[in-house]
Amino acid sequence: MEVHKKLLNSVDRCVDETLEGIVSSNGGLALLKGHRVVLRADLEHLKGKVALLSGGGSGHEPAHAGYVGRGMLSGAIAGEVFTSPPPGSILAAIMTLWQRGASGVLLLVKNYTGDRLNFGLAAEKARAQGVPVDMVIVADDCAFKQPSKAGRRGICGTVFIHKLAGALAEEGQPLDVIVAWVTKAAKHIGTLGVSLSPCSVPGRLPSFQLLPGDMELGMGIHGEPGIKRSKMASADEVVKTMVDHMTDPSSQSHLSLKSGDRVALCVNNLGALSCMEMAVVTRAAINCLKERGVLITRVMSGSFMTSLEMAGMSLSLMKVDEEMIRLFDAETTAPAWPNLSSVCPSERNPYIDPTERPPASEINLDQGHFATVVARPVLESVCKTLVQRQDELNALDRGAGDGDCGSTHALAATAIQEWMKDSTVPGSPSLLLTALAELIEGKMGGSSGALYSLFLTAAAPHLSESNNAADWAKAMHAGTEAMKRYGGAVPGDRTMLDALCPAVEELMKLSAAPPAAHIDILQAAVEKAEVGAESTRDLIARAGRASYVASERLTQPDPGAVAVAAVLRTVFEVLKSKRQ
User: Fold this and answer.
1) What is the pLDDT of residues 241-292, one digit of tens each?
2) N or C: the chain end with fewer CB closer than 10 Å?
3) In what order do the strands lie in the sheet with 312-319?
4) Phi and psi for 515 in degrees, rounded to 5?
5) Residue 222 bears catalytic tag
């Protein structure tokens, strides 16, 4: 068995350098000179309020220094790795906070013999000097069905108590009220861990061995062996085993949990699990509790109380009510406290359906003039034109491609016709173009389908707020630019762009023209599209399938350009008739 590699400078100095690194990277923290004590840098804000201290052996980072800040701990005392801090440093922290104006000091201690003794001794010495001090012991470990006289160990559930006590202290609650509050809350916390590998104190061998493929349930955070070894299982199975054990009524250490109970959940990385594993385990824990009918109000997932490089995790559950949730959500500057979502995981659907449309009230559809008087007649006429010209377009395509240009356009036209039979045409131009883009993408196929869908998709956003003539011109320009950008063709390459681009260039004049001139501009745009389509007869194909065909065989206009000109001519004729 080998000593684990660790990126340190010195075994003897690793704790001091850890604290220096934490404090130097967080402007809200400071070190108490001469001691391994991290304090809030803004001690002046503690005047008249209860100060909170916690701590323990090092190696559990970010606990406990990471929880020092406004709204959580006032300070944290660190011992050697996995060793309780000395009472002298604890007393120095207490007296510093008292001398800075704290109304009292509360010690939040994990239930380990060394911590109880050293924090207790410091508390007695402080009381002897007239400092109001109290101590709350946290014992949240659910591993042992029949705990020894030492009782249940204090592990990651302690972080819950830091948060609740910190919020109460920040509100100015007196010492006795905070003690009563968190003592009651601590009775409703349960934690259980599982490990896939041991950890090792710097410079020492691992405290136990696990064979490859084995895991250990209920180990301690100081490298103590657990209560049961078994073969590795899936994340879902491991989490279910853990929750079953934590809530087993036959265990003296169990957390009573029933359907309808509300809980805060902490999924804690013990040091060496990957982010991927942690996410999978978090999912498993949420699903397991949902299946039991438990309402999960808050979820923490990450590293909160580690055990050096132990590959494992723990689950902590705290039964909560509305007041506890409020305290949970209270602001804190502690660097290790996560930015929690206030959305209850048990009450939300985490998936977004891409086919679901928002209610009409949210998208402000106007099923009025545009839909019935403009959009539907235009679509009906365009579809009719494309179906009628199917054979003509196919014939043009046989000399340059695979002879299906008319068929693909007719396929799209038929799909639009069927869609209009069963659907309400949106009154919003932006939504209409988006709907047509999706329909054509799915029904037309080929490069033509992709190009038309791309054109409509890029044009749609420009019509989301208004849809005057200038906006339509800008939308068509955006769609054309998208086709050029992604398709690679430009005017002159013998493609549909040779009809579309001259028309769009003419339409851009709508931005400055008076309304009376709009119909003339539309007519000019259509005529330029038709001239452009005809001009492709004499162009050399530089893009699309026709570029692979010998130029002497390309004696007819490009079918895609002819189709575009036909569509624009049809649109113009409908709009012209509506204007008369």
Assistant:
1) 999 999 999 999 999 999 999 999 999 999 999 999 999 999 999 999 999 9
2) C
3) 228-231, 214-217, 189-195, 312-319, 262-269, 295-302
4) -55, -35
5) yes
Q: What angle do CA 388, 390, 395 make, to 5 degrees?
A: 130
Tokens of 533: 């389509």
- Alpha-carbon dihedral of residues 117, 123, 126, 128, nearest 10 degrees? -80
Res 373: pLDDT: 75
**H-helix segments, 389-468:** 390-398, 405-422, 429-443, 446-459
42 near 95, Cβ under 8 Å?
no
Among 222, 409, 477, 518, which one carries the catalytic annotation?
A: 222
Question: How far is it, in rounded angstroms, from Cα 517 to Cα 326?
Answer: 64
Rounded CA separation 152/507 (Å): 79
The tens digit of pLDDT for each residue in 381-423 reads 999 999 999 999 888 887 666 678 889 999 999 999 999 998 8
Q: Look-up: residue for tokens 């999978």?
A: 280
pTM across the whole model: 0.68
Q: In the structure encoding, which two tokens stand for residue 12, read together?
A: 């003897």
| Domains defined for the chain, CATH in brackets | 14-347 (3.40.50.10440), 366-579 (1.25.40.340)
